[in-house]
Specification:
Blueprint: H1 4-30, H2 44-49, H3 54-63, E1 71-83, E2 88-104, E3 109-113, E4 116-127, E5 132-138, E6 142-150, E7 155-165, E8 177-189, E9 193-207, E10 215-226, E11 231-235, E12 238-242, E13 251-265, E14 269-282, E15 286-299
Antiparallel strand pairs: 1-2, 1-15, 2-3, 2-4, 3-6, 4-5, 4-6, 6-7, 7-8, 8-9, 9-10, 10-11, 10-12, 11-13, 12-13, 13-14, 14-15
Amino acid sequence: MLTPALRCKIDRRSFAGLCALVVLLAVSSAQGQSADPQNGIPSAGAAADTGDDPLTAIDRELTNPISTTPNFNLRTTTYWLSIVEYRTQRVEQTIEAEPLLPLQLTDWLWLMTRPKINLLDSKPLNNSAEMEIDRSIGVGDLQIPVVLVPSAEHLIFGTGPTFVLPTATSDQLGDGKWEVGPAAVVGYRSARFLAAVFAQQWWSFAGSVFRDDVSKFNAQYFLTYFLPEGWSIGMSPTIMVNWKDAKSQQLTLPVGFGVGKVLKLGESITFKLGVEFEYMVIRPNNFGQRMSLQFKLTPVLPELHRGPIFGGS
């Protein structure tokens, strides 16, 4: 049996190694971009139309939760958890991947998906048999929202179904259920400001009979102010509600503050770096997230398909 000290060493080494590997893969994929303005990156001419620089125009696209610019959002997050039962705290570490894959159906309608999964989750858990806090390390469940988005200059709107696939490698890292529900995004954007909410509700309909039924709600909200030269400030925390928990344990309500910067390496690699701190104003008592520190890497990806699939010239 591994000692707690050895488990901690293995955890840190695995986490750091996988983090480096994922970052390298993401940057490598970004190298496949073309320098052609048609590859989904806003052109200098488009930036001139709004009176700002090209980096700020790209920043607006990478911040938009339903952007028409394909990108790959990688996040590594450290959560500080409150464990009232043991009068202590523990740390959870995750590496999360969330690509944004838009597909233009017609001149005015887009189909978009934002699949999200924890590639690595190092999560503390309550080992009631040994009356101690143990740890589970592995992959989490896969979320797949699919939304239809009409084109609009300032309004952000989209709706469609969302799914959860039980891909977790242990019971502690996922629900063990197949889940489905509605997803919707609504918001407003201007040249200097973006405000939006991306909400999803899931109910379980199949899966392990030994796992509890699921009814949970997530709403990620975005508040961003765009500065010159590709800089931005704001926050994008996720409100979480587990309707099956006791009322006092259902809600996690975070607020935060973050800084981001868009960078270009040569003509073919464009990406955004960001860091964000969040504090959970309302949270569950046991194993609830108290605060978090998140680092983000978002490279621009090549387009899946250029132009509308139906009715294009």
